[in-house]
Specification:
Number of strands of chain A: 2
Shape of chain A: globular
CATH topology of one domain in chain A: MetI-like fold
Radius of gyration of chain A: 24 Å
Order of helices and strands of chain B: HHHHHHHHHHHH
CATH superfamily of one domain in chain A: MetI-like
Strand order of the largest sheet of chain A: 1-2
Strand content of chain A: under 5%
CATH architecture of one domain in chain A: Orthogonal Bundle
Shape of chain B: elongated
Number of helices of chain B: 12
Oligomer: heterodimer
Order of helices and strands of chain A: HHHEEHHHHHHHHHH
């Protein structure tokens, strides 16, 4: 068990290394550099001087090894657009994205599991059919468009929720205690709900088929035969077995969730990593862009790692198999 | 059921949902091809910047006009060309690359497979949207061909894992082994014996991917880095509407409906294809966006059932 965990950790580190390499080279392969923007007042000499100063005139392999070394020290360079170290910008925005993505992840898993189980139990019944159709519809909604429509509906036509940001830009400073918390929560409602809506649709279908695979098993028949109530059979025995594939999904669904969060952040002006990336990009802020790609990937790697470890902890078959 | 099993095509045509999906997709393609010929304006034409700016839907302009007084219906029809073409070509590219990569890894096995899969782990950990956002803006303005290439080259990871797993299964079958023993060249084994046996799940994955890429391209265009002006794609119509969003919701609503209908049609078709490819599998798991095509729940659903 311990050796497997160490091996799994090592594997994650290798993936992080590969991700860093890919991000570096893909982004550096773009034409130009941070100093090649069009501004007549900057002379070629000045540009050359900047390139010299920041090492952009060095051969690519040398830049790469230097970059790796600084990343290993936790330094991601300096954001020329924001005039602050990249690590500071990330430290400020990542928690906000994690809050958004984390809440959506929790909410969508809880709802998706409930829906999937309810569908599987009464397979092909009216609830199953209607829910399947509705979920397929939500699954086909582009997340940003769903967000735009929610914005239109709940902030312009029925103005009951704030249109964006984390807190009220004016009034929040005058609030304390409950009102301040309520203000924060009100700003969370639309981003979290729209992000969850799209995620639930994909997850519930998995939960449904995982349950359908488990329900005909012998141990379910045994559980029924020994006189357990149907409720106990479904929610204690069947669900527990059908949850293991969902744990793997927890890790695998993360890239999509983070990608969705990026659009949602843009629609609701949620100042997280996605908005940071979108703004960094306009400013040709290479270090910041590279770092956001790496940070997003590292979140995914960590998510996968946690999912695998949880999987190992609860499912003895995985332990033996690995 | 009695008698001979029907062909896959027969089952597809007789699948009720598949018929609906195919009809909708055919209509969309027709609208994209013929639609622009039937309307009075062209997609980039600014009709009357004073009188017709941001007009709500009316008889003359059923989908309204945008802030540059362009007719939204016309733009949606022209946009259908771009959105459908970009998505289809991008998926063709990603499927080709993914199948090639997966075939090589799965057939080679051993260290080659291991190294290729580790590299793939890296690719799959990078959120696609984030990477596309980075590359597209640093390269902007990206021509349509570049957009297609980038969407395609960032979308093959899931397919290749799927193909690799399927290839490993097929490779272990006796007929492949006997072909190898007979000295059939590797390329021919891959082409004649392995590829046809893994085609069904690849087709399902690709169909679902088309819907996914249409939504993705729309999202990127919404951020202003997808299809560039004056070429309208469904997403870039939003990009123009979003500034005065509350005042001209129709600019966002109608192209959005076009996207939802299209994505829904491709998703339904993908589901139907999966039913058809394996009729004994009554109920199958469905992918989460792209990355999930690989692991236990969906794999068991996608495998040809004689291996299951």
């Amino acid at each position: 068990m311990r050796r497997q965990i160490v091996a799994r950790l090592a594997q994650s580190l290798i993936v992080v290394f590969i991700v860093t390499t890919i991000s570096f080279f893909v982004i550096r392969s773009a034409p130009g550099d941070p100093f090649s923007y069009d501004l007549p007042s900057i002379t070629p000499t000045v540009r050359e001087h900047w390139r010299e100063q920041f090492g952009y005139n060095r051969p690519l392999p040398e830049q790469y090894t230097k970059y790796l070394a600084s990343v290993a020290h936790g330094q991601f360079g300096y954001s020329l657009g924001r005039h602050q170290p990249v690590s500071a910008a990330l430290a400020e925005t990542i928690p906000r994205t994690l809050l958004l993505a984390g809440l959506s992840l929790g909410l969508s898993f809880a709802i998706a599991i409930a829906i999937g189980v309810a569908q599987a139990v009464r397979r092909d019944g009216w609830f199953d059919r209607i829910t399947s159709a509705v979920l397929l519809f939500f699954f086909s909604l582009p997340d940003f468009w769903a967000a735009l429509m929610a914005l239109l509906l709940f902030t312009y036509w029925i103005p009951i929720l704030p249109s964006g940001g984390i807190v009220d830009p004016v009034m929040h400073d005058y609030m304390s205690g409950w009102p301040a918390l309520v203000d924060r929560l009100r700003h969370l409602v639309l981003p979290v709900l729209t992000l969850s809506l799209v995620t639930i649709a994909g997850l519930a279908r998995y939960q449904r088929s995982a349950m359908l695979e488990v329900l005909p098993s012998d141990f379910i028949r045994t559980a029924r035969a020994k006189g357990l109530t149907e409720r106990e059979v479904i929610w204690r025995h069947a669900l527990r077995a059908a949850l293991t594939p969902m744990i793997t999904l927890l890790g695998l669904g993360l890239p999509a969730l983070l990608g969705g969060a990026l659009f949602i952040e843009r629609v609701f002006s949620w100042p997280g990593m996605g908005l940071l990336a979108a703004n960094a990009i306009g400013a040709r802020d290479y270090d910041l862009v590279t770092a956001t790609v790496i940070a997003g990937s590292v979140m995914v790697v960590i998510g996968n790692l946690v999912a695998d470890l949880v999987h190992m902890a609860i499912d003895p078959r995985v332990r033996e198999w690995q | 059921m009695s008698g001979q099993p029907r062909s896959a095509l027969w089952r597809l045509v007789h699948h009720r949902m598949a018929r609906w999906a195919l009809a909708v997709i055919a209509l969309l393609i027709l609208a994209a091809l013929v639609g622009p010929l039937l309307v009075k304006y062209n997609g980039a034409e600014q009709l009357d910047i004073v009188a017709l700016k941001n007009r709500p839907p009316s008889w003359a302009h059923p989908f309204g006009t945008d802030q540059y007084s362009r007719d939204v219906l016309t733009r949606v029809l022209y946009g259908a060309r771009i959105s459908l073409a970009v998505a289809t070509l991008a998926v063709l590219l990603s499927t080709t690359v993914g199948v090639a990569y997966g075939l090589v890894a799965g057939y080679a096995g051993g260290r080659v497979d291991n190294a290729m899969m580790r590299l793939l782990d890296g690719f799959m950990s990078i959120p696609r949207v984030l990477l596309l956002l980075a590359v597209l803006t640093l390269w902007s303005p990206v021509p349509l061909s570049g957009l297609i290439a980038l969407l395609g080259l960032s979308g093959w990871f899931g397919v290749s894992r799927l193909v690799r797993a399927e290839t490993r299964i097929v490779r272990a079958q006796e007929y492949v082994e006997s072909a190898r023993a007979l000295g059939v060249p590797t390329m021919r084994i891959l082409w004649r014996h392995i590829l046809p046996n893994i085609a069904a799940p690849v087709l399902v994955a690709s169909t679902l991917a088309v819907g996914n890429v249409i939504a993705l391209e729309a999202g990127l265009s919404y951020l202003g880095i997808g299809a560039q002006e004056p070429t309208p794609s469904w997403g870039s119509i939003f990009f123009d509407g979003v500034e005065f969003f509350a005042g001209n919701w129709w600019v966002v609503l109608f192209p959005g409906i076009a996207i939802v209908v299209t994505v829904l049609a491709f998703n339904v078709l993908g589901d139907a294809l999966r039913d058809v490819a394996d009729p004994r599998q009554v109920d199958v798991a469905r992918r989460l966006p792209e990355s999930t095509l690989t692991d236990p729940p969906s794999m068991s659903a996608l495998q040809p059932s004689e291996n299951g």
